[in-house]
Amino acid sequence: MTNSSNKYILMVMTAVLLSACVTQKYERPKTLKTDQLYRDQASADSTTIADMPWQSVFKDEKLNALIQKGLDNNLNLKNAIENIIQAQASLRQSKLAYYPTLQLDASTTHSKQSEASLNFGGANINTLTTTYKLGLSTSWEADIWGKLSSSKRAALATYLASDAAKQAVQTQLISDIANNYFRLLAYDRQLVITQETLESRIKNVETIKDLKEGAIVTGAAVVQSEANQHAAEVLIPDLKQSIRETENAINILLGQAPGTIDRGILGTQIIPENLAIGMPSQLLQNRPDVRQAEFNFRVAFESTNLAKTYFYPSLTLTASGGFSNLELKDFFTNSIFYSIIGGLTQPLFNQGVNKMRLTTAQSQQLQAYNNFQQSLLTAGQEVSNALYTYQMAVEKEDSRTKQIEALIKAVDYTKQLLEYSSATNYTDVLTSEQNLLAAQLSGVNDNLQKLQAVVDLYRALGGGWK
Description:
single chain, 466 residues, alpha+beta, four-stranded antiparallel β-sheet, 12 helices, 4 strands
């Protein structure tokens, strides 16, 4: 090994050691506590529905077709992909900073000098000259303190953050499409129930009129039955409006103009049997927004490293060379020129600026760390809320079913008593019918709550992007 090679290796090792003294290597903060993120949910099992593809979580083929269309056409998702492209270009640009710059200079200079300014005592001097020049110049900055390395690592973290942001948009998009789809199915079901109830109440009005003719009920019962009919009628326009608005919302998510949504029915929806949530620490890898927050923290960390390097001198090597001649025909004759310059620049009068730059970077790093922690706490909250919402919806199912069965019997019994006995009046029938419709509509909401809780839990755990 030659002496020049040894010197080169020694310079590289010295630069690495000096860089390590100024900048720090990134490590995930050890102060983060993830073991208690899930309230009342201690688990050592790493199985989680976040690892399931969305096609396996949702069994409705029509819903899956809508989700795929949304992934293909959603405009917010397309913008997120463009952000990745921009970050990737910045990353490549930061890598190129390691290499010397190379510039080609080809020029012709035509100049006229003043004879009076030359002061050659009347000598015959040519004051009109044309200079032809062709040369190359290069410049290279040695990464002694890790300035370029920190910039590259910051660009890499920015790129990874943009990729995580795109994944977060995707998981939210899947969640929004599914939630709106189930909401649409719930409105459909409530509309069917209300229309069936309206048909029943229209028939009931005729029955009450017949009973009035038989002097079994009074005219007040007829008016009450008509009002009961209209109470059902007035619900239908609101439900139709909700259906239309939900269809339009889904179309926006699909990146298309408003129109009818092809869909199934609420009663045929199937959800995963085992809603495994895994361990809280898995949110660090599964939640795209949490990973994005950590990458943003890494960007701020490297920005602090970069701010530290401004306190130290920078070493720049520049070189230029080529041909320069006053005569084009003799351009390559005795025309070679070159220069090599090594410069060491030490900041003297801008220490105040450097200190403020470092203070700002350190403050931004602390903010990024707080945002990282906040994203984890929010993720744990969303998992706990979604899981508890699902559990409460399941608890209500059995009671709601029994309530509806009892109210159906109550309506039948009060109608029979009204027709064949004087032990009741139409107010009892009216109350039973109103309670039955309210319970049936609430039962649909209970089912919707359970379905949407599964969707929210899947997103909260970080499912949908893998």
